[in-house]
């Protein structure tokens, strides 16, 4: 999204790119301090990673923390990132449209 490869990000943070892949797919959790380092390397604020997660009190959906602890969510994320990028973008657009229509 910002034109940085996983290798470039890993080098900037001081870890191996395989670890970045594990963070991206949800295989490993990102600690608060590591998230801070990643945000600094990407020159964004930490809040960048939480955009769109705000909900009002009348929202009946699960909080994001509950969703990320859900096995189905993690399986979906892992599968999503196995899809080639061009198709993944189209799938994302479709999912967003369906969510907006709900």
Describe the 3D structure.
There is one protein chain. By secondary structure, this protein is mainly alpha-helical. The protein is built from six helices and no strands. It folds into two domains: 51 residues, Orthogonal Bundle (434 Repressor (Amino-terminal Domain)), CATH 1.10.260.40; 47 residues, no CATH class. The chain is 59% helix and 0% strand. Helix 1 crosses helix 2. 6% of the residues are buried. The model has no long low-confidence stretch (mean pLDDT 83).
Helices and strands, with pairings:
Elements: H1 6-13, H2 17-25, H3 32-42, H4 64-68, H5 71-80, H6 85-101
Helix pairs in contact: 1-2
Q: Could you describe the largest sheet, including whether it forms a barrel?
A: none
CATH architecture of the largest domain: Orthogonal Bundle
Q: Output the CATH homologous superfamily of the largest domain.
A: lambda repressor-like DNA-binding domains
Number of domains: 2
SS element count, helices: 6
The structure class reads: mainly alpha
The end-to-end distance, rounded to whole angstroms, is 27 Å
In N-to-C order, the SSE pattern is: HHHHHH
Flag low-confidence runs. Answer: none
Molecular shape: globular
The percentage of residues in β strands lies in under 5%
Give the C-alpha Rg: 15 Å
Strands, count: 0
Protein traits:
434 Repressor (Amino-terminal Domain); globular; single chain; 102 residues
Outline:
This protein has 102 residues and is mainly α. The chain contains 6 helices and no strands.
């Amino acid at each position: 999204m910002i034109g940085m490869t996983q290798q470039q990000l890993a080098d900037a943070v001081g870890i191996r790119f395989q670890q970045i892949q594990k963070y991206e797919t949800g295989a490993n959790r990102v600690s608060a301090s590591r998230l801070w380092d990643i945000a600094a390397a990407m020159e964004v604020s930490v809040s960048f990673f939480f955009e769109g997660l705000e909900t009002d009190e009348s929202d009946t959906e699960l909080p994001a923390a509950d969703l990320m602890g859900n096995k189905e969510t993690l399986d979906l994320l892992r599968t999503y990132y196995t899809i080639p990028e061009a198709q993944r973008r189209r799938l994302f657009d479709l999912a967003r449209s369906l969510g907006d229509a709900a």
